[in-house]
Amino acid sequence: MLMLNKENINDLRKEVENQLSEIGNRRGIKLKIGTISYSPERFTCRLTGEPESGKKNEFQKYAELFGLGREDYGRTFSLDGDEYSITGLITSRSKYPVQCTRADGKMFKFTVPSIKKALGQNI
């Protein structure tokens, strides 16, 4: 790679995100790259990390208020052929409060009824 451009920055981002996901899973921390600024010779970005235990504690603290069980954190379910795991609860989101991670590491937000249905619980 001699010069940085949009195409190879996007390729590099994907590769770095995959590696960060693996490292984060091993270390129990969620790692995320922010916006990448670049010139032909160099790039910069922000890396943020959040301990997973914080998300788990937050989920368990508020799960019952949303009609979920404390034990639902980390549960997996299949939807449209993809595997997801429940990785958080964002209380400021009234419509899509449940945060899930697809098997490839991409984050998604879901409604409580859709999670209950996917877990086979009564709505």
Topology:
Blueprint: H1 6-27, E1 29-38, E2 43-51, H2 52-62, E3 76-79, E4 82-89, E5 98-102, E6 107-110, H3 112-118
Antiparallel strand pairs: 1-2, 3-4, 4-5, 5-6
Explain briefly what this protein structure is.
With 123 residues, this protein is of the alpha+beta class. The chain has helices at 6-27, 52-62, 112-118; strands at 29-38, 43-51, 76-79, 82-89, 98-102, 107-110.
Question: Can you count the beta strands?
Answer: 6
**Secondary structural class:** alpha+beta
Mean pLDDT: 91
CATH class of the largest domain: Mainly Beta
* End-to-end C-alpha gap: 53 Å
Shape descriptor reads elongated
What value does the Rg take, in angstroms?
A: 17 Å
Order of strands across the main sheet: 3-4-5-6
In CATH terms, what is the architecture of the largest domain? Answer: Roll
Secondary-structure element string: HEEHEEEEH
How many individual helices? 3
Helix content: 25-40%
The tally of structural domains comes to 2
Strand content: 25-35%
CATH topology title of the largest domain? SH3 type barrels
Low-confidence stretches: none
Outline the biggest β-sheet. 4 strands, antiparallel
